[in-house]
Amino acid sequence: MIFLKRQLPLAITFVMGIAFTFQYYIPHPVSEDAITNVSKWMQIISGFALFLGLASLFHVHAVKITRQVPGWGFSLALYVAMIGTIVIGFWSHGETKVDGGQTAFGWLYDYTMVPLQGTMFSILAFFIASAAYRAFRARSREASVLLVAAVVVMMGRVPLGQFLLPWTWDVTQWLLNVLNSAVRRAILIGVSMGAVALSLKIILGIERSYLGGGRDQ
Amino acid sequence: MKDFARRMVGIDRRIIFLLITAAILLPMLKPFGLPIKVSPEVKAVYDYIEAMPERSVFLLSFDFDPSSKPELEPQAVALLRHAFRKNLRVIGMTHWLTGTGLADGVFSAVAAETGKERGKDYAFLGWSPGGGALIISMGQDLYKAFPSDYSKTPTQGMPVLEGVRNLRDVNYMVSLAAGGSGIEMWYVFGKDKYRFEMAGGSTGVIAPGLYPFLRSGQINGLIGGLQGAAEYETLIGQKGMATAGMDAQSAAHFVIIALVLLCNVFYFMLRGEQGRPR
């Protein structure tokens, strides 16, 4: 069991990691065929991840409902919505439209999912306004700089601000293209170096947390 | 005066919600119609499409779901109107499963408006799992990655895909992204290896994070948020949802700026008090 749970995954990770690092630099037909096939495997594995996610979601909420933990009603609503959507999806053969007409599944998507997701996101505008009013204060020099920059960018990114204070447009462009780019680039380089280091640790078998913490380990 | 300041600092948030509601609704009922300034990053996308010869291949990836519809759908509509007007061959797809119906709806609506035919002038491939792996798969062989399109028509032999074997045959691509599975992923797994020119369209909240890619030339243009969509609508000379929404966005920004400035005035009025205002 230790071989299947530990040594085999480590060996597969090492071989595939090294092989596909070099594959990128070898434009030979054999190498190209290999990446074509492996990318298809990866797509298939990603598809299975959806089933795993669904199974996990069902399990977590089933536990909440059976134990009647606080807020279990929401879990019940999630169950009803998920099962309802799956049943209607199968009934409509997964089609949103047939011969130009909307199916029940299409109706469910257009009239529940689209407005619900839109509503969730648009509520942010109200909470951001309320949070900005309470938290955006010039408590220190750094906070003052942030406050001034935010006000200028908010003015410069909308037509009314550009009309009333035309200079905010140019300052906004400069802030985004120069200061913001420099800082973001530094963060990106740092994150990328970290990703390379972590990938190397995984390929070389130094980082093994992805194998889980089973009994055999 | 200090009592008033203290009351205002702790104002009921429902009053703020009402102010924001009014700021969004009133300009929609009575628009100001202020002119939209076009930024160089949006103009770059427009110029590239404008310079493409007829029947060039343009790939538009809808990497968002309904929660980002207000910002990214106007961008998609404006780009499709421009591409169809230029008589380009358009390939559509999405990396976000929940965005598939939305993307298909946008394609169908703009194609009907411009008299374009599915399969001949455009193809909507739909969704397939994999993210980065899907991009590599498309880069190797488009027909293995998508054996059929969203309406289950086999992709092999589709007139719109004539001469297109993989991503190397795409002349230009734009990813409309609301998060991680978007512009960066298309650059890392797609453009870097398969050498096509690309640009990005994004929600306002992730746009600042994409400026390093723009400045380094990894993407040749960037359409940021509703403002970017309104700029694109101005460039193609066809005003739409984004231009209409910019007045509401202007007013909402001004209400938030006024609230933040007012709160700071009250904060400074109370600053000397014992225990300082929270």
Explain how this protein is built.
The complex is a heterodimer of chains A (217) and B (278). By secondary structure, chain A is mostly helical. Chain A has seven helices and two strands, in the order H-H-H-E-E-H-H-H-H. Chain A has a two-stranded antiparallel sheet with strand order 1-2. In chain A, strand 1 (97-98) and strand 2 (101-102) form a beta hairpin. In chain A, helix 2 packs across helix 3 and helix 5 packs across helix 7 (167-203). Chain B has two domains: 2-30 and 246-270, no CATH class; 40-239, HUPs (Rossmann fold). By secondary structure, chain B is an alpha/beta fold. Chain B has helices at residues 2-9, 13-29, 40-51, 69-85, 100-114, 132-140, 142-145, 183-194, 211-215, 225-236, 241-270, and strands at 57-63, 89-94, 122-127, 172-177, 197-202, 222-224. Chain B has eleven helices and six strands.
Helical fraction of chain B: 40-55%
The radius of gyration computed from the alpha-carbon positions of chain B, rounded to a whole number of angstroms, is: 22 Å
Name the largest protein-protein interface in this structure. A-B, 57 and 68 residues
Oligomeric state of this protein:
heterodimer
The fold-level CATH name of the largest domain in chain B is: Rossmann fold
Structural class of chain A: mainly alpha
Shape label of chain B: elongated
The average pLDDT value of chain A, as a whole number, equals 90
Roughly how many Å apart are the termini of chain B? 18 Å
Domain unit count of chain B: 2
Secondary-structure element order of chain B, N to C: HHHEHEHEHHEHEHEHH
Topology readout:
The complex is a heterodimer of chains A (about 220) and B (about 280).
Chain A (H helix, E strand, L loop, with lengths): L1 H22 L5 H39 L4 H20 L5 E2 L2 E2 L1 H32 L5 H16 L2 H6 L2 H37 L14
Antiparallel strand pairs in A: 1-2
Helix pairs in contact in A: 2-3, 5-7
Chain B lengths: L1 H8 L3 H17 L10 H12 L5 E7 L5 H17 L3 E6 L5 H15 L7 E6 L4 H9 L1 H4 L26 E6 L5 H12 L2 E6 L8 H5 L6 E3 H12 L4 H30 L8
Parallel strand pairs in B: 1-2, 1-4, 2-3, 4-5, 5-6
Helix pairs in contact in B: 1-11, 2-11, 4-5, 4-10, 6-8, 10-11
